[in-house]
Amino acid sequence: MLIEKTVLNDERNVTLTAYLQPVKGEFYYIEKRPGILIIPGGGYETCSEREAEPAAFAFLQSGFQAFVLRYSVGKDAEWPNPLNDYEQAMCLIRQKAEEWHVYPDKIAVAGFSAGGHLAASAAVLAENRPNAAVLGYAVLTEESAHEWLDSAPGLIDKVHSGMCPCFLFSARTDSIVPVRNTIRFTEALEKNGVMFESHIYSYGPHGFSTGTSSVLDPDAAICPRARRWVYDCADWLKEVLGDYTQTGMSAPLYGTSVNGDSEAYLSVNCTVGCLMKNPEAGIVLRRLSDDMKDLLSESCREQLAGRRDLNSVTLRVKLSDMLGFEGIPCDKTARYDRELRSIRNCSYSG
What we know:
By secondary structure, the protein is of the alpha/beta class. The chain folds into 2 domains: 2-249, Rossmann fold; 272-340, no CATH class. 33% of the residues lie in helices and 17% in strands.
């Protein structure tokens, strides 16, 4: 493994340390690796060592190229210095993607506590946004952010539909960063249709990092399941970024949103309500109803043809799910998906 340290800002003591695993050779099927940028906590006063290398090495074990950002803290933490540090770090990683054998479009950020605030800020505010965000017992509400840094922004109202998928974890008994930070951010993700996975463990201390006895008091009261968050997170990252195969990385299992309503072009992953708003899509749906009259129920045919008022449940169901409920074969669904993907989404705001 190669360890390479880069000074990003000498005056503010900002550094990026890269932990780079080999590719090719014995790893003949690996040309590049996904990356993860670790942002330790520390209340914007310091960068916690137990949330730096220990976290990086946990993700190295899962096949990532890992990076640790030691950002502006203490007297240098005035916002937006920390966010600028992140921007510089992520920009450097992507610029050196070939040299460091990293997929530039498969780089996650993982932050803890105040570092989780910075990681979430990267996901919602940055120009160089990550492809996934891992937020551990993160500071997310305006109230909590101002407890640690007056100039730090609250992030709940800044969540938007175009941001990356998020993995969140915290402990119900955290007395330093209240669990409502995770709950309210999760609610905002759900409201905006962003893909996420969230774990709130029944009990545990603040700052439990990877949960192992090497970084946490062995006698600490922590839910045994909380010690497994790294493995759950690594599996989740494989779903949102892809996993190793003999011919490269597999495609992600799902996109950034729970449906296709926020995409530039329509698809069967859009909700029926979204499709019904588009006249061109309406033509496709009526033709689908006619073409599959022997396969669809009368109720479904009438809804797709616009001959029956739709209730709120039907409006929010994805077309792919509706056809799946009706037992329509995937190859027939794929035909109409291709047609819909040629139609621009009139609701797209990107």
